[in-house]
Amino acid sequence: MPVNPCNMDAIMALASRYGLRIIEDAAHAFPTSYKRKMIGTLGDITCFSFYATKNITTGEGGMITTENEEYADRMRIMSLHGISKDAWKRYTAEGSWYYEIVAPGYKYNLTDIAAGLGVAQLRKADAFLKRRVQIADRYHEAFQKLDELDLPLSVDGKEGTTHSWHLYVIRLHLERLRIDRNHFIDELRRKGIGTSVHFIPLHVHPYYRETYGYQPDDFPVAYETYQRIISLPIYARMAEDDVERVIESVTDIVKSNRK
Known about the structure:
Elements: H1 8-18, E1 23-25, E2 33-34, E3 37-38, E4 45-49, E5 62-65, H2 69-79, H3 112-123, H4 125-143, E6 149-150, E7 168-172, H5 181-190, H6 206-212, H7 220-226, E8 229-232, H8 240-256
Parallel strand pairs: 1-4
Antiparallel strand pairs: 2-3, 4-5, 6-7, 7-8
Helix pairs in contact: 4-8
């Protein structure tokens, strides 16, 4: 399960060739860097998520970054009822009570309270990342001895590229085990280890299946990968004893269920 930044050089070259705009989904990427450039400074627009499970959180909501003033002005207007950008100053000393609706906008603005949480979280982002890297390194060290597992690929430090370790996803070699992925998760749960699956392919969900007639094997790579993946616990405040307990539990389940 790749967890590194995309090959942005190739993507930007393609966009330049065909006159395309790049909008990056960086929901899991903060604070990733690509060749010494922070994600959020590469494409035309970059979208971040600050949901409760992300590397920094505002509880809910997110952030969009751009270096294009026209895009920025448009997003500010559309995020708050289509109110003209000058109206953002109406509660300041230099502002006026008067405002105008210049477009049919939305209510997508981050609240001041949530933004305050985000600013406080931002100050801790480097420390949060450092701890996630430590946990990922410890998992790597322990699990690379198990041939029944594929581990996340990492390019940390290569050409100034890093990633956020928002998730640590292992892939099971099911042909080498006597249990499937769901049973593996059940075994971890019995040992007190909570896990998840990121993500269930869209084409197997009822809406897409019933609306478009998709079958699981219509997208065989996505479906095969889905059947093998498990996201292990990784978060900034995870205690060392808990990290070791995850390692011991995964290792025990693998060794107990080898073919």
